[in-house]
Amino acid sequence: EILDDLGDLAMYQALLEGRGVRGVVVDCADCGEQHFHEWDLLRASLRQLLDEGQMRKHEPAFDPDPGDYVTWEYCRGYADATLNAG
Question: pLDDT tens-digit profile of 17-66?
Fold first, then answer.
């Protein structure tokens, strides 16, 4: 599953980064806050999860603009629509 997520992440970044999207926002079940992950940070975290079985803690983004980040579900829907459009 993690390898699939890494492949999806690469596709999402390729499709969305040029449109100004800086990364993915995740609702954290543990603290109840949103976490903003830039593309490279999320990729590194997923690789660490794959290699070590856990994700490392990271410094939160400094004053992120929520408009620069989208959810994983948005990425999936955008990719599906883009690929189906031809």
Answer: 999 999 999 998 888 889 999 999 899 989 999 998 887 676 666 788 99
Are the beta carbons of 25 and 34 closer than 8 angstroms? yes
**Cα-based distances in Å from 63 to 10, 26, 44, 60:** 25, 16, 21, 9
Tokens of 22: 């800086």
- Hey, what long-range contacts does 28-32 have (CB within 8 A, 24 or more apart)? none
Rounded Cα distance between 74 and 63, Å, is: 22
Strands (DSSP E) found in 23-82: 23-27, 34-38, 69-70
pTM: 0.87
- CA-CA distance, 50 to 65, in Å (whole number)? 29
Angle between helices 2-16 and 39-52 (to 10 degrees): 170
* Tokens encoding 68: 């620069």
